[in-house]
Specification:
The protein is an alpha/beta fold. It contains 8 helices and 6 strands. It has one domain: Rossmann fold. It has a 6-stranded parallel beta sheet with strand order 4-3-2-1-5-6, with helices on both faces. Helix 2 runs parallel beside helix 3, helix 5 crosses helix 6 and helix 6 crosses helix 7.
C-alpha cells in the first residue's frame, strides 16, 4: 500500500492508528519515526493515534503526532503514572483503571502469549507482585489492538519492527494480536517509502 492509498482508506472518523515498535531504534531511523507521526497526523486529520508509552519507537512516533495535534494521541499504559514524568499532558488509559472482569477477551487473548500465560492469569486474578506486573505490559499491548469498553478497536497498526528477529517481545505480541483479529498492519519496509 502506498501513502495515497493509506490516506484514502484511513482518513475517516473513528479511525484508530496504532503506532508502536521496538525500544531499540537505530539512530539513523529515529528521525523517520518522528516524521511519520507528524506526516500522518497532518494528512489524516480525522484519525486518532494510539501508543503504548514505551521508550524508543512509541515515544518517537508520539513526538511526531504531538507536533500536529496532541489531543489526537491516546496512550495506553500498563499502570497509572507509567512514565508520567516524561508525559504529563498526554491522554492516558492506564490498565489498572480497567476492570478486567468486564474484558474477558482481553485476558483470553493476552494469555495466548505462552511465555506470559501464567503471569497474565495471576494479574487477571488480582495478584500485583513483580512477576504478575510483567503481564500488565502484554495486556496493555493486546488492548492497543482490541480496545476496551472505554476505547475502540484499532483500525490499522504501523510498526517499527526488528526485521532480523521479527515477532519477538511486546511488539511481536501486538503483531500477532493484529493477525488474530484481522487488523491490517505494516512495518517500516512499507511506511519508510511514504517519507520520500
Amino acid at each position: 500500500m502506498n501513502l495515497d492509498e493509506f490516506i484514502q482508506t484511513y482518513n475517516c472518523k473513528n479511525t484508530v492508528i496504532v503506532l508502536e515498535g521496538k525500544r531499540k531504534v537505530l539512530d539513523s531511523d529515529a528521525p523517520s519515526l518522528i516524521l511519520l507521526g507528524e506526516k500522518l497526523a497532518t494528512l489524516l486529520p480525522l484519525a486518532l493515534f494510539r501508543s503504548g508509552n514505551a521508550e524508543g519507537a512509541d515515544e518517537l512516533f508520539s513526538i511526531g503526532v504531538e507536533k500536529v495535534d496532541p489531543s489526537r494521541l491516546h496512550v495506553l499504559t500498563p499502570y497509572s503514572k507509567h512514565r508520567a514524568r516524561n508525559n504529563p499532558d498526554r491522554k492516558q488509559y492506564p490498565l489498572d483503571t480497567i476492570s478486567l472482569l468486564k474484558e474477558p477477551d482481553l485476558v483470553y487473548q493476552s494469555a495466548k502469549n505462552q511465555k506470559m500465560k501464567s503471569q497474565v492469569e495471576r494479574y487477571a486474578n488480582g495478584v500485583r507482585d513483580k512477576s504478575a506486573m510483567m503481564a500488565a505490559y502484554i495486556i496493555r499491548d493486546t488492548a492497543k489492538i482490541l480496545g476496551t469498553s472505554e476505547i475502540g478497536k484499532a483500525t490499522v497498526a504501523l510498526f517499527y519492527e526488528d526485521l532480523e528477529k521479527p515477532l519477538k517481545g511486546g511488539t511481536g505480541h501486538t503483531v500477532k494480536t493484529c493477525l488474530e483479529n484481522n487488523v491490517p498492519f505494516f512495518d517500516q519496509t512499507t511506511w519508510m517509502k511514504w517519507l520520500d
